[in-house]
Amino acid sequence: MLIGLFRPAESPVTVPEADHRSAWRYLWWLIRIRPWPLVLSALLGALWMLPLAVLPLVVGYAIDDGIQAGASDSLLGWVAVVVVLAVVQAGAGAGLIQTAVGGQMHAVSTTHRVLARQAVRLGGSLRHRTASGDVVAVVAGDVPGIGSAFEVVGRSSGAVVSFLVIAVALTVTSPVLGVVVLIGVPAALLGIGPLLRPLQRRNEEQRDRLGTATAQAGDICSGLRVLRGIGGERTFTARFVDISQEVRRAGEAAGRMEAWIGAAGVFLPGLVTVLVAWLGARLALSGVITPGELVAFYGASVFLVIPVSTATEAAESMSLARVAAGRVCRFLSITAHPRPPADPMPLPAGPLSLTDDATGIQAPAGHLTAIACSGARASAVATRITRYGPPDEAATGTRVGDVPLEHADLPGLRARVVYSGHDDILFSGPLRTELSGDTPRTDGELMSALRAAAATDVLDAVPGGLDGVLVEGGRSLSGGQRQRLVLARVLLADPDVLVLDDPTSAVDASTEALIARRVAAYRAGRTTLVLTDSPLWTNTADTVVRLPPETDRRTAPEAEQTAS
Q: In this model, does residue 2 exceed pLDDT 60?
């Protein structure tokens, strides 16, 4: 199959860097990295539409040479030409479908891969830089719009070629009619142009409203249990209804503009058709052209509606693709945080200590350190000392081993210092993969981590146990069960430094005491920091750090640090 010749061969890693300086540059980049599907699509589009354009001329000649002149041999010859044109059109149409879809899938799959690569690069900073609804709207709404523009390339190229052929043929036969076509059809297209800019603005507005609605829907779904608990379902439902109506109104506005463009794409070339038919009839009555030529002119003028409509569709698709590509470029322009240091320093081998001058935290290497704080302050401290915080947070004053945090090699830092917070989520899919990630784990290793997190009972709530599947990110599980699975997952990662932000806030006291003891044993010899106010952790820890009331070392007293 032709489409097989253009199946993307690159893996996500080898896709070249996208040119996202502007929407048009991005679309041109998509063409440059794989041009042949579009080139072949354009050729096949011309072969597909040319028989339709030439057919009225062939019929006109058949009328003059065969029917009117009474020459049966000539008539049979023109019939044979019609059969050849039909065969060419059928073959070119079949190939056009495959190549057009191939070009569309290239644009869609390549854009999906560059978006996925950008999301991976942004990592945890993604949530600080853009809303989840915007990301979903780009993937679900904008990427298909780019693909549609690539799909219409073949048909629009055929429309241009067929128009030129018809214009030349009519001009040779009748200069007057040729001039009417050469002027009238481009004028009809130019008449549609002023409608494209309002359509673009309304599409942008609809995309903005859709992103807001998608983000709000995600928030409602993720917080449904809480909403039911506090009786907030009606309030949030009303808010979602309001934003949904805004999306509907924006969509209707864009739809009305699309309808006007579609109507103009039929009405304006229709006027050209009427004019050509009227002039052709007058020329035929005056004997300037033959009856066959009149039929050819009328058929050609009726055919012109097809290329004009196709060109209108192409212009509309390109307008939508420009809006979509602009959103893709904005997402690709987001810079990751933290930025890699100019001269990265590798972390030392072996167990790592962690110290922070701003809070007075000193976590000895290989010890379990409990930091007595919780809530928003605990999360702020945890993200600060691991460089997972918002872009405006500084990383100065923190050292991992003897390496300043702001100078640490980021890949090495992410591999050896791991932070697990309140908003960590589970993904839908096989439980075994969810726990082990890319590193193959034995059943014994998985069960050991689950026991340390007191999460073996969760296997009974997942049909199939370790070989079962988490549905909807584990939302069928309780909050405590999800929290313990997250803890088991991060324990299996086995980093040199593990920072846990209140990892047992959703479990009862007896389970929390069990988890504290088991995590201490599981992480023996590796550095672990637990930010919590629970005495069950502080009683288990090797070292306890009690933070002063203020985190600014210039005004706050020294942190109190004790060894258990």
A: no
Is 402's pLDDT higher than 80? yes
Checking if the pLDDT of 513 tops 70, the result is yes
Question: What letter would DSSP give residue 389?
Answer: S
How far is residue 89 from each of residues 43, 45, 84, 169, measured CA to CA in Å? 12, 9, 9, 20
Q: Residue by residue, what is the 3-state secondary structure of 244-279? A: HHHHHHHHHHHHHHHHHHHHHHHHHHHHHHHHHHHH
End-to-end CA distance of the chain: 71
Radius of gyration of the chain (CA): 34
Contacting residues for 22 by C-beta, under 8 A, at least 6 apart: 326, 329
* Nearest one of 338, 343, 354, 346 to 496, comparing CA atoms: 354
Maximum alpha-carbon separation in the chain: 114
Q: Which amino acid is at 218?
A: G
Helices and strands, number each (H, E), in the chain:
21, 12
Highest mean pLDDT, choosing among 259-273, 401-415, 544-558: 401-415
> Is 80 exceeded by the pLDDT of residue 67?
no
Q: Point out which residues pair with 561 in neighbouring strands.
A: 545
Give, in order, the Cα–Cα distances in Å from 475 to each of 39, 88, 469, 478, 483.
48, 57, 12, 7, 11
pLDDT for residue 267 is more than 80 = no
Mean pLDDT of 444-461: 94
Q: Which DSSP symbol is given to 32?
A: H
Burial 397-410 (b: 16+ CB within 10 A, else e): bbbbbebebbebbe
Distance CA 401, CA 514 (A): 30
pLDDT at position 107, please? 92
